[in-house]
Amino acid sequence: MVDRTTPVPPSRQIANAIRALIETGELAPDRRIPSIIALAGDYGVSPDTARKAIRILRDEGLVVVVPGYGTFVANRERGPRAS
Predict the structure, then answer these.
(1) What is the pTM of this model?
(2) Is residue 15 domain-resident?
(3) The domain spanning residue 41 has which CATH number?
């Protein structure tokens, strides 16, 4: 769940949580992250808010979106797959 008492937008809070999982290695390179629908359910937000969180991470180069297949942790050694 997101903290609605903070001025940090929910999409940014979700992006921060996923970023932390990537940085600690809990989400390894090339590993698929949960779907937009799953993230929305897990964090109690709309799919649009979850989509914004993924967009933040994509723009930072932390995840790669493969249309029709899913979103994956970017493999920085190999470079981006597609976006």
Answers:
(1) 0.88
(2) yes
(3) 1.10.10.10
